[in-house]
What does this fold into?
Amino acid sequence: MEILAEEYQIQYDAASGTVHCQGSLRLAGTEEYAPVAQLLIDAAGQQPETMKLDLRQLQFLNSSGINMLSKFIVRVRQQGKPQITVLGSKGIPWQGKSLKNLQRLMPSLVLELEEEG
Amino acid sequence: MPQIFGEYREDLPKGNEYLILRFSPTSVPLKERWRNNGLSANFMADYMATFFPGESVIPVKSAVSFIANELIENAMKYSDQSSDFPVTIALYLYRDKLIFLTNNSIAKPQVETFQNFLKELTESDPAELWLQHLEQNAAEEDSNQSGLGFLSMINDYQAELGWKFEDADPNGVAVSTMVQLRSESL
It folds into this structure.
């Protein structure tokens, strides 16, 4: 499963149970984000135990994207599985500021912010 | 009479550096020109970064790009499509802060809903409101969030926000949105 656009790429690697997001995600709203949300839901469906969301190469995410990601996290919380780990980078400032909010939606979410470089 | 919500400064201090972008009204559907929002935000971010020392370039670019993009997206989304009022975004640089100011028309039927949200936003705990909005959005299958961008600016960037509504043209309403971002919050 993958979505390859000019400005962003989203790929699910089944072997490692990881969804990799790269580029700039600035779509216009819920409707435009629907394919991305569906990819996340499908990936979570295939991962009974743990799933990783690798955002280390995601340079920008607009608030509609934050909304989509938050909806996904709430959905996983309601279903009780899988365990989610979000990988971020300290070199991308919005991640340090905004990703911690996801833990407020699901306290069991693991957030790993890597040092840059 | 203009109506003010939140922290809105009428007396904008004189700054040395500023950048103003004005977008003409167009008949091209918003969907087809959506990428211009991100392009414009990135340009503003890149431009302003020139005035900051090396170590702050990355955080400045990131914050300006996020905030400018949210403001432009909102202005484009909520502009009254039947009006010939342009959308303007200005960014002023001061010693200790950046001030963003957008100006756009808004369709009259949307004014009340927007103002009700602003009342809620300015009277509530923003962290609680953020959580409440997201839980609510998650419950609605095709919710089209609004206000989450403003809440992110307040919660994640400690920005101060204000709005001014004024009559424009014979039948229109113009809204100005001001975002004050302290340099120390970058």
